[in-house]
Design brief:
Number of strands: 6
Strand content: 5-15%
Distance between the termini: 54 Å
Shape: globular
Largest sheet: 4 strands, antiparallel
Radius of gyration: 17 Å
Structural class: alpha+beta
């Protein structure tokens, strides 16, 4: 068991180096290319080096890994202006809401949808602002991985890098509580939203 964990750790470290070496600005990647990436087994990571998010990022010019997931999820996270469908966009919206006056609303009007406030969406104008910010500020990188290893490698990448916007199974994330606190503020705003 220890040997398997050691191998996973070493693979995760090498994948991290490969991801860091091959970043591209999101604005330079057409949606059609994101769709192609989603069809190829692998892992993608999101990087950022500005100061607007806080969370200990931007102290140097070095890109910091914000998020990692299976490449099959890249379009859902970055190729569609639908904050209600992805925790990555919800977290980014929460961290940027005050500065950019992002307005949260319930994901649906279906009262049977118990997660419609926690999984808030944004108004159309706010979705556009967030999408523009993502394109202007985020960097993306992808590495290939065999399909049968992705479910093991993503958690290993999360453990070894502690990306601040991976909120699940990320015990080393020292900023997770802050991101969750900001998300609760947008959940409250979604509950108070009047169309």
């Amino acid at each position: 068991m220890i040997e398997k964990e050691q191998v996973l750790w070493q693979v995760a470290q090498q994948m991290t180096l490969n991801l860091q070496a091959n970043t591209r600005k999101l604005a330079d990647i057409p949606v059609a290319e994101l769709e192609n990436i989603a069809q190829t087994p692998g892992i993608f990571a999101v990087f950022y080096n500005g100061r607007e998010l806080g969370l200990g990022i931007g102290k140097t010019d070095e890109l910091a890994m914000l998020y990692v997931d299976a490449a099959s999820q890249i379009v859902r996270h970055l190729g569609q202006p639908d904050t209600g469908a992805t925790g990555l966009r919800r977290s980014l919206a929460a961290m940027l809401a005050y500065k950019y006056d992002l307005q949260a609303k319930p994901r649906t009007t279906d009262e049977e949808d118990v997660d419609r406030f926690d999984n808030y969406a944004l108004t159309e104008e706010s979705e556009a602002k967030l999408t523009d910010w993502l394109k202007d500020n985020l960097y993306i990188s992808v590495v290939a991985a065999s399909p049968d290893t992705i479910d093991q490698l993503v958690p290993a990448m999360i453990t070894s890098n502690a990306p601040v916007l991976n909120l699940t199974n990320n015990k080393n994330n020292q900023y997770g509580a802050e991101v969750k606190r900001c998300r609760k503020q947008l959940t409250a705003a979604a509950k108070a939203y009047k169309a």
